Amino acid sequence: MITRRSVLVGIGGLVLASGAWTVGAYRASMAGTEARLARRSSIIDTDAGALEYAVAGHGPPLMMIHGTGGGFDQGLLFAHALRESGFRIIAPSRFGYLRSGFPDDASPAHQADVLVDLLDTLGIQRLAVVGGSAGALTAAEFALRHPDRCSHAVLLVPAANLAGRDPVEFTVAQKLAVDLVLGSDLAFWSLSTLAPGQMIRTLLATDPALLWRVDAEERRRAELILDGLMPIGRKVDGLRNDAFWSGTPSSTAYEEFEVPTLILSCEDDLFGTADTARRLAERIPEAALTIWPEGGHIWLGHDADVAREIAAFVEPGSRS
């Protein structure tokens, strides 16, 4: 006969086993994160502190500046198709991310100036610069402040406050979730494990229903972008800095751009970058603009399209 005591003991055993599995799975995930980052990047010293970066591929150089929650590894992931098509990718970690420093002046303009030190270190005189999401703020400042070092600028799902209001408006529940994951790697891992669709909607601003309308390779890319937000604990300064500069009315003089500029976005981006992209195209002289009907903030289903657009823009006539 099953007694109340035996039932309670059984439930207790399941709880302990579940807890043990959770701890083990979390530790395995963190170990995988460390392995993903280990020995893939280098550091240079600058007036703003350490600047982390990675270089991958061969061919014409192209700098990929990561978005919110990223680092050099996200830059490499964003530029994977470009690397495969024959570009040498330069991927820095911006202020407050991973091993890069966080100076008192952590503005996109200052970050753009520090990236010149990276080009000098690598012996690169001029290259195309792509900035994704909040990284587009730095890419724009780089193009504006250093046109002699920037051959082309690409603003990919660009984050910027051009209308006097923060384009990202979180609900109360979303704000609670963001605050929770910003404070804990374990909380982020738990939510990503238990509710990946909600995390893709909230943090990657992409309708998770799109995952089932794209191929397996694109679904895997979405998973990698979400997983790549770890370790949150080494990105808190960068995340909060991005939230400030993305939400603050932009003072960048887009009307004074001198370099060819391409702007790419998706209409259904939940961070509203399609509207931002159109406003930028109106302000930047002779800017080219492409907006796909769907794809969200991570241009799901359009990674190959993004790479083709950028390659054709940067090297017209040399790419099919």
Outline of the structure:
With 320 residues, the protein is α/β, with parallel strands linked by helices. The protein has helices at residues 4-37, 72-78, 80-84, 108-122, 135-145, 172-182, 185-194, 196-203, 216-227, 236-247, 273-283, 303-314, and strands at 42-46, 49-56, 61-65, 88-92, 127-132, 150-156, 261-266, 288-292. The protein has 12 helices and 8 strands.
Give the helices and strands, then pairings.
Layout: H1 4-37, E1 42-46, E2 49-56, E3 61-65, H2 72-78, H3 80-84, E4 88-92, H4 108-122, E5 127-132, H5 135-145, E6 150-156, H6 172-182, H7 185-194, H8 196-203, H9 216-227, H10 236-247, E7 261-266, H11 273-283, E8 288-292, H12 303-314
Parallel strand pairs: 3-4, 3-5, 5-6, 6-7, 7-8
Antiparallel strand pairs: 1-2, 2-4
Helix pairs in contact: 4-5, 7-8
Assess the beta-strand content as a share of residues. Answer: 5-15%
Q: Rg from C-alpha positions? A: 21 Å
User: Biggest β-sheet: count, sense, barrel?
Assistant: 8 strands, mixed
Content-based structural category: alpha/beta
Low-confidence region ranges: 6-18
The DSSP helix count reads 12
Shape: globular
Helix content: 40-55%
Mean pLDDT: 88
In the sheet with the most strands, the strands line up as 1-2-4-3-5-6-7-8
Order of helices and strands: HEEEHHEHEHEHHHHHEHEH
Number of extended strands: 8
Give the N-terminus to C-terminus distance in angstroms.
74 Å
